Amino acid sequence: MAKDRIIALCADDYGLSYGVSMGILEALDAGRLTAVSALVNSPRWPAMGRELRRRGANADVGLHFNLTLGRPLGPMPGFAPQGTFPPVSAVIRMALRRKLPMEEIRAEIDRQLDRFEAVMERRPDFVDGHQHVHGLPGIREALIEAMTSRRLAGKAWLRNAADGLHRIALRRAHARKALAVRGLSSGFRHAAQLHGFATNDSFAGFSDFDPGKDYARAFETYLRAPGRRHLVMCHPGHVDDELKAQDPVTITREQELAFLLSPRFPEMLEKRGLKLARLSEATG
Predict the structure, then answer these.
(1) Is 24 exposed, middle or buried (0-12, 13-18, 19+ CB in 10 A)?
(2) What is the C-alpha separation between 222 and 233, in angstroms, rounded?
(3) Gene3D superfamilies, alphabetically (predicted)?
(4) What pLDDT tens digit does each residue of the chain (284 aa) get?
(5) Are 37 and 11 in contact (CB under 8 A)?
(6) In this structure, is the dihedral angle defined by the CA atoms of residues 42, 43, 48 and 53, taken in order, positive or negative?
(7) How crowded is the C-beta side of 188, counted as CA atoms within 13 Å?
(8) What is the pLDDT of residue 137?
(9) Torsional class of 55: left (φ above 0), alpha (ψ -120 to 50), beta (otherwise)
(10) Contact, 65 vs 112, CB < 8 A?
(11) 20 to 30 A Cα–Cα from 27, which one of 21, 35, 61, 133?
């Protein structure tokens, strides 16, 4: 195993609820995460964002750009006429048909970046997307344009969720979801790198969020066929009523957190010759 092969582990959905956020902070304090991705349109964001600012010095902190959960930060009469974001399936259809109201999308990108920076008092270390919307046609170009205009090229990295076919085949688990995201995000890495943004070399962490399955066994598949800068997403957290009211993914968040805090996690990394690291350091 090459000595410089690392794994960046990113917890998604910070700010979604108090319980989810506190669970992520537990994993962060234990040194089990190297990145945290924040939902800034959540009512929890300002307060939980300030807590993350105090405790996130040892991890990359980024924007979990969101167009599918909750409410936009400003009016979007064409995209969210009822005041709430549409489901991801509708966003995908609009993107593939080139029917997205791009001026509204661009404005929301700027609002979410502004809100991240206002609370964190700095620029994001990276940007990704809730349900991978950042890789969709139209949205990806608008996001890269917004980040370029803020002079983030060379300073922030972007999540590339489109992994290589050979790696998807070797991991086997959740291949259908991985292939679907790969197809929808085709061309994202090239566009990002063309504008000076670093990306991860490989990507894993897809799940069907089935509480009846062993998350540790699933995580082992995420470590197969890693690139030199391997990125794994995860969704740890505590379940509370606030989470239940917003998202169907509940019990498995507790299971993920328990695994990350257990001795089994570092043992698994050591066995594979992988080391946790921040992707910003690996790409710098």
Answers:
(1) buried
(2) 9
(3) Glycoside hydrolase/deacetylase (3.20.20.370)
(4) 345 578 999 999 999 999 999 999 999 999 999 999 999 999 999 999 999 999 888 999 999 999 999 999 999 999 999 999 999 999 999 999 999 999 999 999 999 999 999 999 999 999 999 999 999 999 999 999 999 999 999 999 999 999 999 999 999 888 999 999 999 999 999 999 999 999 999 999 999 999 999 999 999 999 999 998 999 999 999 999 999 999 999 999 999 999 999 999 999 999 999 999 999 987 65
(5) yes
(6) positive
(7) 31
(8) 97
(9) alpha
(10) yes
(11) 133
Counting runs of H as helices and runs of E as strands, what totals does the chain give?
A: 13, 8
Q: Nearest Cα to 72, choosing from 81, 60, 61, 63?
A: 81
SS3 call for 65: strand
154 φψ region: left (φ > 0), alpha (ψ -120 to 50), beta (else): left
Token duo for residue 9: 């582990």
Q: Which residue type is seen at 170?
A: L
Residues 6+ apart with CB under 8 A from 209: 235, 248, 249, 252
| Residue located via tokens 């998350």 | 215
Distance of CA 42 to the CA centre of its chain: 15
Q: How many CA atoms lie within 13 A of 264 on its CB side?
A: 14
**At residue 94, what is the residue type?**
M
- 198, 37, 17: which is closest to 112 by C-alpha? 37
Estimate the crossing angle of helix 102-120 against helix 139-149, to 10 degrees.
50
The answer to whether the predicted template modeling score (pTM) of the entire model surpasses 0.85 is yes
DSSP 8-state assignment for residue 86: P
Q: Are 76 and 110 in contact (CB under 8 A)?
A: no
